[in-house]
Queue: 2 jobs
Job 1
Amino acid sequence: MNAVAVKKDLFWIGSVNFGCLDFHGYSLAPRGTTYNCYVLKDQKNVLFDTVQAPHTEEMLTRLKQVIEPEKIDYIVANHLEPDHAGVLPELVKICRPEKIFCSVMGEKSMRGYFNTEGWPVQTVKTGDVVNTGAHNIHFVETRMLHWPDSMFSYIPEERLVISNDAFGQNIASSERFADELNRAALIHGIEEYYYNIVLPFSPQVLKTLDMIAGLKLDIEMIAPDHGLIFRNKDDVDFILKKYRELAEQKPGKKALICYDTMWHSTEKLAYHVGCGLEEAGVPYRIMPLKNHHHSEIMTELAGCGAVVAGSPTHNNGIMPAVSAVLTYMKGLRPQNRIGGAFGSFGWSGEAVKVITEYLEAMRMEIPGQAVKCAYRPAPGDLEAAAALGRTIGKALTAKCEDLRHP
Ligand SMILES: Cc1cc2nc3c(=O)[nH]c(=O)nc-3n(C[C@H](O)[C@H](O)[C@H](O)COP(=O)(O)O)c2cc1C
Ligand SMILES: [Fe+2]
Ligand SMILES: [Fe+2]
């Protein structure tokens, strides 16, 4: 794969990792990922971001297709996480840039990761502009979207925003542009990325979207540092609208049931919760945690306004997979959800209480009675599970209606 001209003077020189399954050590990227970085050719030649260190050769090969590396004058580091700054030390050595631009917090993380002695670092803040000849780079800090150092680079002459992690997707593909990919696959990639990485920073997303609207930036292209590039006005509008929708977290009329089980009693309850939801007219998906990684659960949550979690009582607590998924979910701070708990037990039965505490910590509404059954569920227990499903289904339907007709 070669460097790709994204605009007349702007080139993609990133790397594509079809084999990356584990993204950053905590999330799955079943379709691999890309690390995008870009070169702007002008009187001053600029490199925006780099890639993860193991992909150094790949990036350098593409860089050399576009320009001799020594001719890079400026490096912009929009974010210092190692997937974007991994090749920085190597490039500083090779390019000997005149300047390296990053935010104030970026300088801190840069010094935390690398020996920056002698590096020509210049910190920038929102409103600062750097002229490169025919172009001006406007810096826009996007603190905590998703690190304190994160920022965007806006080039009005190209109507282009290089947005770093925001608007990204974990998709490895030969295609570089969003309009070249199947739309359903693209949307799945956007939601997967948002729900596993960006979700806790939804308030910052809304602030950033308002800021973009307020500044009346003329944007015809958004180029993130992962995945496909949005290269026309329709796709720019599409991704901005999609991000607002994701950040607002209006509940979807669908429920997610996740559980683990040892001897299948909790599983039986899960299926009966599903029956109750069905009776209430709410679609659902049952996700056994032996089959699904916690990042798949989060991706599914994008469309679900309710989470019903089940676990047998295991050593006075819950099963490790349930604990893992609830811990992960809680950290990602989903909003506006309805929750429910169920589980089988033998003698002490703490599981539903532990699950409920997680749901409460996520400030979920809990309209139904948690279902707890001793050993094997009796008919009454199965009916209680169905009743829980019905109650959650009705509450979710009402919540969705209220939002439609406030
Ligand atoms: C290793 C192990 C530890 C358990 N610890 C507890 C416990 O601390 N308290 C309790 O009430 N039941 C405990 N149980 C009993 C299970 O909760 C009970 O068998 C339950 O019906 C299993 O539900 P399941 O069929 O969904 O796996 C334990 C079972 C096993 C195998
Ligand atoms: Fe990042
Ligand atoms: Fe990233």
Job 2
Amino acid sequence: MDAVTTAVSPQAADVKKAEKVAYENNKLHKRLCRLVGQAIGDFNMIEDGDKVMVCLSGGKDSYALLDILMTLRERAPIQFDIVAVNLDQKQPNFPAHVLPEYLTKLGIPFHIENQDTYSIVKRVIPEGKTTCSLCSRLRRGILYRVADELGATKIALGHHRDDILETFFLNMFFGAKLKGMPAKLQSDDGKHIVIRPLAYVKESDTERYAEVKQFPIIPCDLCGSQENLQRKQIKALMREWEKKYPGRVENIFSALSTVAPSHLMDRDLFDFAGLTATGEADPNGDIAFDEEPCATPADSSVIRLQLDD
Ligand code: SF4
């Protein structure tokens, strides 16, 4: 066969490339559905008859959340309603038409709540100081009230796995607490259940999904506030780990749901004072003396042999 007959035409190459892209996009959509479905199931986030208020900021994550929840609702064996809510905080240049247009096209019930928290924050917080904590507190209060008014039984937020891990590290480094961001919690007014169905989803997946779906993203820096520098640094560190040490971030995330209170130091979680020897061997007990935490399986067998000798 000569070179002319084996060459792939540019059109055929384009078709092949388009097929590959479609295949990858489909895989991404399936993965997102699977992980969101799994988180919903693991934490019993949504029950039959729920009305889920999806908080939509105009960022990639909340768009992805709404999109995936809508897909899962079609397939779910239970019946639940979705209402999308956006809080227009009257930030300068906020494109107020974008979300109503998008949501109308989707054909989903929605509510836009107009509250000028931007002016309040600007008035109360001195110039140059960080505005996020007051802004979020105001936003939270308003969203809880709106949830009441709409009769929502669950409030869904678009935080993902990386938000949870960043919060975990921030709390540890700067708050001296082993505390992340829960996948499901009771709101601080005690009246609502807040859920984070993207808890198992990586940020890079919501980023890609937003590109694939061409969500009409509204920039998140309209208020003029700088992103929390420490969070930015932790995000960069995690991205570096992902590249250099594949699996490390996944392991840290898994560790959040595999906690051993007896091997930590919180006396409220484990009764160290009342601990006594039972006389019974525990096969899952402490192996700290016979295995190096970083040993490879081969190394650890050598260590065991040496100890046994
Ligand atoms: S970045 Fe701006 S809008 Fe977001 S919480 Fe901070 S002050 Fe509020």
